[in-house]
Every structure is written in structure tokens, then in C-alpha cells.
What does this fold into?
Amino acid sequence: MNQIVVGLGERSYPIWIGERILSNVGSALDEVDFPLKVAVVTNPTVGDLYCEQLIDTLVASGRQVSVIRVPDGEEYKTLETLENIYDVLIERQFDRYCGIIALGGGGIGDLTGFAAATYLRGLPFVQIPTTLLSQVDSSVGGKTGVNHPQGKNLIGAFYQPKHVHIDVMALETLPKREYSSGMAEVVKYGIMRDLEFFTWLEAHREVLAGRSAEALAYAIKRSCQIKADVVEKDEKEQGLRALLNLGHTFGHAVETLAGYGVVKHGEAVAIGMVMAARASAGIGLCSDDDIERIVELLTYFDLPVTPPDYSVKEYLSVMQRDKKVKDGVVRVVLNHGIGTAELHQVEDLDKLLGELLT
It folds into this structure.
């Protein structure tokens, strides 16, 4: 088992990464003095696979467990679902000395984290991510929230978990499309921060596609370490942390226009990263060879690289509501080759989109 610490002073927390470590959750929670009365938020798919085992280990550690099941899918990451979680917490008399555990993918983690951040002005919570995307991205860093019909993750809060528990074996039951979606975020870390890691991903793509536990453990650990390093320097996304959104400004627009859940988050990010690379090449910051390497690795993992056929006006309307917009100007993360990235202001987004969509 590997351990990483996200160093944020009194809000620091450990990340445990290993094979078949779900049975160790109780001891992990004891180490961070997690409450004895807990609610596990999950969905029917994940709950049927892992909830019984999790309840057993929690009860064995002396905990009283309630289970809250919410519908499965990005389209249910809404204020209405959040209100349903509040209703159960109130009905079961959860107070400030109780805790919440997210068992599931990124949608469950975001919802649960936001519920924890806002119920009684804050309860401790733990992330147990069960998808590759949530293991390498959304479970780490404290971003929580829900979607709005006019934009993804427009409502939320920064709220750090007390512990993140990553069991690589959960990926054995992950559908192929969900697995591919997660690989987009893994590739992102190499593009925006670590050329050596990107090259490692190219060399190990076959064993990663075959879900080798050893290769996955390394890829997850390296991805989490890169994200932890960034979050430690910029917890509230005032500068450096925005680089983690490589591909997301374009990608969130794709998700919103298609309808939440139609295009997977990682699929949209893959499309967005290729669009960002092409935009970067247009101003001399990225070579055609770099774009070819990015496209080849993404397509190897069965990820789309071409934007859906929406108009410039449609893309523009969504992107102008992006959280990185400052004083009405859209800011987009562009890769400088492979291994570094920077945030750039786009003064003429209409023109840029026109060039990228033709």
C-alpha cells in the first residue's frame, strides 16, 4: 500500500492507495479520529458491489452506519438530489459529531462533499472513490459541488476530506467506457505537468489498457501526487491550480451542450485537451508532433478527440459562463508542448472557436 499526504496544515489528509484495502477503512478512519456515527452515500450500482463489505468493516471498527442511495449518473448531480441527502441526514438526526462517507465515482464524491460542507455548516467526510476518474482527480483536492442546467459545477465549495481511500481492485468491475474516461485525466497530468510520466504512459499503454493492478497503482499514485503538489500550493484555485483544468473549459462546454451524462466527463476532457493543443499550436507553443502524440495516446484508450458538431455561438454561450472567466474575458489552459501548461487570456474567443471547429 502507498500513502500520500496532501499537506494543507490543519486540513492535511492522507491518501491510501493499494490492492484490496477496502477492509482497512476502519483503521484508516481511526487514524484521523473520524466520527463513530456515519452515513455512507452511494448509488445502486456501486452499493450492490461494495456497500456490504464496507458496512462490515465499519461496524467492526465500532461505527453505527446509515446508507443513503442516490440515483446513478451525472444528470442526478443536482440541487434536488442534494436536498434528498439533507432530508435523510435530518430524519436520522445527524449532528456535528457525525461523519459522511462517499462511496462511488466523481458524481457521488462531489455531491457528498458538498452535502458535508453545507449540512450544519460542515461535517467531516471521507472519499472512497470507485472509478478511475474519481481516484485520480475528483476525490483529491476538496472541490465539491453540483451542476446547474446552464453549466457544470457552477454551485459548490472548496471542502477537504479527512481521508481518501483508493482500492485499485474496484476498477475490475468498472465498465470499459468509464475506465477509458478515467484515463483521460491520467493523460492530462502528463501533458500539463510531467513529460516523463506522459512518456511512461505511452510505454505502458498496453498493460494499462489491460488493467494491470501494478501499473494502475503507479499511474494513480503519480496522478494523485501531481494533484496534491498543485493543491498544496494553491488550494482555492487562485492561480496554479487552474492548470489542472487543462481541456476542461472546452470539455465542460461539450458536456453541457450534449446534456449531462451523454458525453462522459473524461471523454469531454479528451476532446478539450486536443482542442487546447491545437489552439496552443496556433500561437507557436505546441508542435504538430506533440499534438500527434496526444491524439495517439488518447485514441489508444478509446477516447474521442473531435468536438461534437455544435455551432460557434453555442460553444461561446457556455464557455463564457466558465468559472475561469475574469472580468468578462475567458481564460483557457494551454499546454506548452508536453509537460508544461499555462493559463492564457482569450480576447477573441469567437475567432478561436471558429478556427478550431473548422
